[in-house]
Amino acid sequence: MRHWRAGARGALRLGLLHAADCIGCCAGLMVALVALGAMNMAWMLTAAVIIFIEKSLPGGHRVARPLGVALIAGGLAMLVTPWLGSVR
């Protein structure tokens, strides 16, 4: 709200600033969801639910750090044991 200005011009300016902020924040997430959806709908739904919890629910920020640690650990586990990532 610190960018609020009176009138239609101010509303348009604030809308454009909000749109730019939203695109900058969420574009990477949307690209990742499209890629996940192309590979596996269950993983895409899981990621979408996690994103929803983190962004929308009160206290959702508490999910970010443990989830980040779990994802890094999972990635390292896949690097160490490549057979975890293969489909048979």
TrEMBL record:
InterPro entries: PpoB2-like. The chain crosses the membrane at residues 32-53, 65-85. Keywords: Membrane, Transmembrane, Transmembrane helix. Pfam families: PpoB2 (PF09948). This is Light-harvesting protein B-800/850 beta chain (Modular protein). It comes from Paraburkholderia piptadeniae. The lineage of its organism: Bacteria, Pseudomonadati, Pseudomonadota, Betaproteobacteria, Burkholderiales.
